[in-house]
User: Which sequence fits this backbone?
């Protein structure tokens, strides 16, 4: 009856190959996707902990556990004796000095997107990522250093947060929310992390003295490259591992005929010229 209703001829019936595996249960596929999201989120949080601020004793202790070292070694991250054999308190102090030299001191290489792409703090990426965070209710808490929204560790923590929310959405069967999060993740990588993280990781791998930061920079490069490939993104690296990033020009708009004091308001109004765009060069 069904074949007659749908005008299906027996000759046109699809023959199912008995060797073809049956479709996988949806619940099984969701569980696999959740596990993948959770694993990616954990890696993001691990890398965020490396770059967001100095490594404390608890963080170092966790990384030096044999099972963690084995997992990192399987991913190609091998530390040297300066990390593996050093006494804990001495290692904390040594890494704090290295962190300051690399990321916080004058002449270093701040892990901040605006700085890496424009040579200046608080440029377009700073405000763009802040809007992304506000959209998802992501709040940046104050740390030991001032945290810029486009700091590498903060951007990675935001990605981790979205991945965890995607996992939670899959757990409740909310596939629409999971797809929305996945779209925003791809957009965030395309507009931000993919533009600078790979080159920056290569730079830190070259200039870091301690094997901890060399190894984790290499791990960051591999992780970012795999994420970009897995998401099918076609975004060029704009950082280029530059040790010195030229300062971009600051463009401001102002009208030279606009009054600058109340006393000018009584003056006859003259025809206004169109506002000119002037380049404000760095005065330092």
Assistant:
């Amino acid at each position: 009856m069904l074949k007659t209703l749908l005008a299906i001829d027996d000759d046109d019936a699809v023959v199912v190959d008995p060797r073809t595996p049956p479709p996988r249960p949806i619940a099984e596929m969701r569980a696999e996707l959740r596990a993948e999201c959770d694993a990616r989120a954990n890696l993001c949080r691990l890398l965020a902990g490396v770059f967001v601020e100095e490594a404390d004793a608890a963080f170092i202790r966790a990384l030096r556990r044999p099972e963690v070292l084995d997992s990192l070694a399987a991913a190609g991250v091998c530390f040297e004796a300066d990390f593996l054999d050093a006494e804990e308190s001495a290692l904390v102090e040594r890494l704090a000095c290295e962190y300051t030299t690399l990321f916080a001191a004058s002449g270093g290489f701040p892990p901040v997107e605006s700085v890496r792409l424009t040579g200046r703090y608080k440029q377009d990426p700073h405000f763009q990522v802040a809007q992304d965070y506000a959209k998802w209710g992501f709040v940046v808490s104050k740390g030991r250093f001032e945290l810029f929204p486009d700091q590498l560790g903060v951007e990675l923590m935001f990605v981790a947060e979205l991945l965890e929310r995607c996992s939670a959405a899959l757990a409740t069967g909310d596939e629409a929310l999971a797809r929305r999060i996945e779209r925003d993740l791809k957009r965030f990588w395309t507009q931000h992390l993919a533009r600078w993280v790979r080159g920056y990781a290569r730079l830190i791998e070259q200039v870091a003295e301690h094997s901890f930061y060399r190894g984790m920079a290499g791990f960051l490069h591999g992780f970012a490259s795999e994420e970009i490939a897995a998401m099918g993104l076609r975004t060029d690296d704009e950082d280029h591992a530059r040790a010195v990033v030229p300062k971009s020009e600051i463009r401001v708009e102002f009208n030279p005929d606009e009054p600058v004091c109340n006393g000018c308001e009584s003056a006859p109004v003259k025809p206004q010229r169109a506002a000119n765009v002037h380049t404000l060069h760095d005065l330092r």
Observations:
- The CA atoms of residues 126 and 148 lie 7 Å apart.
- The longest strand covers residues 250-254.
- The chain has eleven helices and two strands.
- The two ends are 85 Å apart (CA to CA).
